[in-house]
Amino acid sequence: MELTLLGTGAPRGLPRPGCPCAACATAVGQDARGATAVLVDGTLLLDLTPGAAFAAARAGHSLGGVRQVLLSHPHDGPPVEVPAGLPQPGRVPDGRELALLTGHRVRAVSMDAPGTGYAVHGPDGQRLLYLPPGGAPAGLEQGNGEPYDMVLADVVGRPDALARLRAVGAVGPTTDVVAVHLDHDVPPGPELRRRLAAAGARAVPDGATLVVGVYEDVPDVPRRTLVLGGARSGKSVEAERRLEAFPDVLYVATGGSRSGDTEWASRVAAHRERRPGSWRTAETCDLVPLLKDDGAPLLIDCLSLWLTDAMDAVGAWDDAEWADGGERELRSRIRELTEAVRATRRTVVAVSNEVGSGIVPATASGRRYRDELGRLNTAFAAECEQVLLVVAGQALVLRG
Q1: In what order do the strands lie in the sheet with 250-253?
Q2: What is the pLDDT of residues 86-113, one digit of tens each?
Q3: Confidence of residue 83 (pLDDT cuts 50, 70, 90)
Q4: Which of 165, 209, 320, 341 could be 171's S-S partner, Cβ–Cβ 3.0 to 4.6 Å?
């Protein structure tokens, strides 16, 4: 199947009309996007949007051969004058299948929000899944068929849709995931590409023609990532965002519950509310066994608290104990951790504080902690494919 994306933006397009935000201000050239509409093999149109006929002409296509127009949005969309010769737009009821004379079969996929998804089977067997904005498939069953060759979805707005599809095998390593319905939630350009790559997805400009089933060089999702940043820099949000599109994530909280500390409890509650409900949580500093085991992706938050626990255990705050084997024991624990990171087969995203750029601590113990955290971050980063530094909520790629 050959697809032409007549638009790849949100229903109101990008930039949004009259919106003064920074993302809309920079959405120019190839980053400007019309409302998403997809022309399949010149015969099937998924979503009729304003200007679709002109968009097709700019891409070197005509809508004259379209035999079926299907709507996916929760509503019938803005008033659109149906071009002469084009069939009246319609919608397939959830679970029903439509067979076209061209050999395409279209099955309506039920969603967890208003709207309709479409699974399209081409005459030669290729499989495409197209999802509406703001929706994720509902009622998916484990192992229900082979992975789709291509998925067009609202990756930025509903990353959990990809997680659900991956959980049941509908999205696999060879599935080409293309982000559509793109809005002003993420600045266009490099930042959008970076976030999509972390989810195993990509974006294409309006008018792009794609062939379903043809290999595309999409960046591999890094197996090991270290996210550094100062206090309240947004590093935990960045780390969580990197795994939103993957199922069965194990969140490893190294800080414990700290019974009686209400301020800490409020921090923990804020983190839990932000995480997807499908994620599991383990409160532990025993990271090496988790890294050695096979299993779901790990999000470790954070290495700074792991180090505090390790330094407590070896008596690092007492100069005598530190000199009498404590320092050697800490080095051994860090070496064991980094060796486990090197050998792990799990996807790992770890968070750590960057504390070496500020005021020199006034106490010897504070300086010792600062120095040891710098050494730990350096050793851990050396084993990671990607290292990020988050400043004011903006992620700077240091490696990868």
Answers
A1: 280-283, 250-253, 298-301, 348-353, 224-229, 386-391, 394-399
A2: 999 999 999 999 999 999 999 999 999 9
A3: confident
A4: 165
Task: Tell me if the pTM is above 0.85.
Answer: yes
In the sheet that holds 176-179, the strands lie side by side as 97-99, 105-109, 117-121, 127-130, 150-153, 176-179
Q: Is 271 a catalytic residue?
A: yes
What tens digit of pLDDT does each residue of 142-198 get?
Answer: 656 689 999 999 999 999 999 999 999 999 988 999 999 999 999 999 999 999 999
Catalytic residue among 73, 121, 184, 271: 271
Mean local confidence (pLDDT), 267-292: 81
What average pLDDT does range 112-120 have in this prediction? 95
Give CA angle at 349 (345, 355), nearest 5°.
135
